[in-house]
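task queued by scheduler; priority normal; single chain, no ligands, no partner chains; default sampling; output format set to structure tokens
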Amino acid sequence: MIYGSRTLRGSRTLRGSRTLRGGSSRPTAWRRTSLGTLASLALVAGMLTISPPGRAAADPEVGSARLVPLQVTGPASERLNLILLGDGYTAAELPTFHADVDRHMNVQWSIEPYRSYRNYFNVYVIEIVSGESGIRCDPDDDPPDPDRITPLGLHYADGCTNPLARGITFQPYGTQALNRYLQQLVAPLGVTASNRQVLAIANTDTYGGIGGTNATTSGGAPQGPLISPHELGHSLGQLQDEYPYRDRPTPGGPYCTDDCAEPGSRHHTRLTEQQMVAQQAKWWRWLGEESESGGTIGRHESGMYASSGVWRPSEHSIMRWLGFHYDQVSREIMTQRISGRRDTNAMALSSTPTDRPVGPTDVLWVETQHPVHHELEVRWTVNGAPVPETGNSRNLALAGRGVRPGDVVGVTVQDPTGFVRDPAIRTGPALTQRRQWTVGAEPSPPAEVPVAFTASTQTDGRAVGGEDVVYVETTHPLDRVLEVTWRLDGRVLPNPWNSRNLDLGALELAPGSYRLTATVTDPADPGGASETRAWTVDNVEASTTAMLSAPVATLAGDVPHHVYFERFTMGLEPADDRPGFTVGEFRLDRDGWFNYFGWPDAPAGTPFLFTPTGTVVKSLVYGNLGSGGLSKAVFEETEPGYGTHTVEHRAIDAAGNVGSPAEFRATVLPGSSPACTRTISGPRAGNLTVSAGVTCLDGARVAGRITVRPGASLVVSGGAVAGGISTDRAAVVQLFGATVSGSVQVGGTTGSVTIAGSTLSGALRLTGNATGEYGLALVGNRITGSLTCGGNGEVTDFGARNQIRGQRSGDCARL
């Protein structure tokens, strides 16, 4: 299940006259692949028919479908096949559908383990023309349309009556159409129900989706791309929801009251940490580690729609709050399910046929899977004894090894990934495969094969990342290993083991772009036939620019540090030098990376809002600076997060390069500045007396001393005061980024006193001022004279230390 809200990406009308939604600013270049004898499909009056394959693309029929192979890394039978279909996109809106796919997939590839195991997927896109724009019963339509007809029949199950509806499901006729599209377009490629995952993308800006082998998501919602990996967690990983409710505003109540059995979920428990360790149960191997989704792996109460009585591994993973990554426990399960190809539970491995004897001079081979950032380990044996110095080769030449008829040659292929700690998973069929052959008495009969590549890392559509492991596969002569030569910008790279893999990360490339090639030749005929494949290597980091709301003060230091009252906003602009949607992420107080999707239920481009207790949007809390993390349920208690926070932000480009993070600090204070009744700017000669109202100095330069009478207020923003400041029983006194020469004396203030980011060269005396619930604020100042405080109660720096050279006494002694 999913939860959340919606944002508009453009104006929108009803019943087929809907205005195009805005797409990615860097759409993927789509490669249209001919399907040969496959005809396009048309849905006419609810029936699926075959239309002539030569129909002009400019005038497609409603319901016609086109297959676009987006990423093909191997035979469909040896991959997990992700099938993306669009519903509710008219012919004019197909570019928007492609942009939605680009955004959805690049977000998915930015999240582990999808990022590392990208090559384990084939991705096929089925582009379907709808006669109407949008889907039925969209709760954010005004009013929701109960009669909209689309090829897949996607609709919000109760969206015509429930404004919080979020489950996008297929109508019966749409399920029938889906099955026909799959049968006609992808089944001939070897895609079956056991090795496929369907994701239908609805043309809507309203948040929604469902899990299952036929999952759904919303194309235009800001969090739409995050629905996909969450729902795949359900359908592919068999993970359960970790949030504490069924109905968002209402706590889910206890997990059980009578028969409190241990849940079957692999990431929920009723055991204590001590019991998990003693019984070696659940996630005991990960306990105490920093969670990939923030916090520490341990025992966190609530989950499986219950608010108490059951515990999950981490405070907030993607199965609880969209935006975060999987924690290690869920990531381990997802790695097993991806590598095992869902229900097959077997890592794909091709090899020399094992059903007949091999010749004593044959070359045996295996073709393994290829994670993006590491190699699988290949170990060869003869009669159980390891064969030394094979260099992790996928080929083993038997000639010269003294093998005899009846000897048994074996190979073990294992994934050494650090994502898995459970030995039952690591040594199980999803991550470990074995093959063995019996050596025969007679040499194998010669058989000529072409000198050619049979597979490789994708060469078109995108660049490879600067730390990727690039791979090729070749044909397999019986008596020799074809030679593979790797070149980088024309320079031959060492390849002592004739490897089919090249680890770019090991080369420690300087930032920049490179041309990588691999050429296969026959060592028996070096000048003969050959084939070359080429890749662009993108070793340039993407970056993010943070646009922040205007602060009341900016503090000095190496890291940008701003001061705000009550709230601040952050807009992120991820940028890269190459096409493709660039993902932005941020992390609050080192507490797990969070996808930057803008702001829920707001127009596209609306920045993310941070407040001490968060903002409620459709019964969920976003942007919380307080206890419990960035996102939470409305009924969960929050300790307000006033004080100093660190926000890191980074970008992940279409090649998978993770940019170095930049950061800033934000100190959030309670209260606000009073409205000005008089504003002074520029130079001001002589002394200044504030007798009533609120006098604001905006960059002013006062030559004399400022005196504030009882009941009046002073707000100084920037500028300089040459003669010091004296206030007596003022209402409000605030100094932001001001430079003050001479002494400052603030006494008996009845409202609030806030001094932030200011430079005070004389003595500072604070006496008898009201401090309120959170204390008098002395934040990030430079004070060269003495600091004397008395009768104020608490004086706090809110986490932004002051630089104080003189003596400190009284309430300020601990600053």
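post-processing summary
- Helices lie at 94-109, 172-185, 224-235, 273-279, 328-339, 423-426.
- The radius of gyration is 32 Å.
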